[in-house]
Structures are given as C-alpha cells and as structure tokens.
C-alpha cells in the first residue's frame, strides 16, 4: 500500500509559478511510474504529466513547455514545477502512482492516489 500526500498548492497570479510536491510512503517508491492529474470545477479529471522509474516523461499538450515533472527517489517525492501559470490551470491537482513500468497517461493505470491540492490562478 502506498500513501501519497500532496503539498504546495495555493493562489498565484497569471504568469506566476508554483511547485507541487507529493510525498510517498513505502520502500518501493523508485519502482513506480508517477503521475500528476488535475480536475477543474465542473470538468473531468485530466492527465497533466508522468515520469517513469527510468525518468522518461510525457506531458499533456496544454502544459508542455510550462510544467516540469521530476522525482527524488532518496526523498520518496515527486514534484511538479509549474511556470507561466494561466487561469485555465486552476484545478485540484492530484498525485498518483502506477505499477506500470513505463509512462502512462491513462488514469485507470494508476493504483494509488493522493487527496489533492488546490491551485488557483487569478488576478
């Protein structure tokens, strides 16, 4: 069983930056593919970014070039650096862990989910 706890959300003006963190429990963090998803008000949850154990990455087109996913296996933590934030980025952001060996954007491939952290981009 893996427990995931997100942090780092908050309110920021358009064009600003935030770094989300997701701390994972358990000794096998390095073997998981990790992902970030988000859910905006009134919308379905959508894929944002993923990183495999081999540090391969994949991003949603809407965040490519602005967001960066990274991981520190020594700290059992995955990060999401978010730059040039837009009002459309406003959402609850979720961290997830998958037993899949390689990157995946499919929500059903993720076995464990955090509770989410709110990001609000507004002037």
Q: What order do the helices and strands come in, and which of them pair?
A:
Layout: E1 4-7, E2 10-12, E3 18-24, E4 33-39, E5 46-51, E6 57-59, E7 67-72, E8 77-82, E9 91-98, E10 112-113, E11 117-121
Parallel strand pairs: 2-11
Antiparallel strand pairs: 1-3, 3-8, 4-5, 4-9, 5-6, 7-8, 9-10, 9-11
Radius of gyration, CA atoms, in whole angstroms: 13 Å
Give the overall shape, derived from the CA principal axes. Answer: globular
Seen as an oligomer or otherwise, the chain set is: single chain
Structural class label = mainly beta
List low-pLDDT spans. Answer: none
Sketch the major β-sheet: 7 strands, mixed
Question: What can be said about this structure in brief?
Answer:
The model has no long low-confidence stretch (mean pLDDT 96).
Task: Record keyword descriptors for this entry.
globular; four-stranded antiparallel beta sheet; 11 strands; 123 residues; seven-stranded mixed beta sheet
């Amino acid at each position: 069983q893996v427990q995931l706890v997100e942090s780092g959300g908050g309110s920021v003006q358009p064009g600003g930056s935030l770094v989300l963190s997701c701390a994972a429990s358990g000794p096998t963090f390095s073997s998981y593919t990790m992902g970030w998803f988000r859910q905006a008000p009134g919308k379905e949850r959508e894929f944002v970014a993923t990183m495999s154990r081999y540090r391969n990455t994949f991003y949603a087109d809407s965040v490519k070039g602005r967001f960066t996913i990274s991981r520190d296996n020594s700290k059992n933590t995955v990060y999401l650096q978010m730059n040039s934030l837009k009002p459309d980025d406003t959402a609850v952001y979720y961290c997830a862990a998958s037993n899949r060996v390689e990157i995946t954007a499919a929500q059903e491939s993720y076995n464990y989910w955090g509770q989410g952290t709110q990001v609000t981009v507004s002037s």
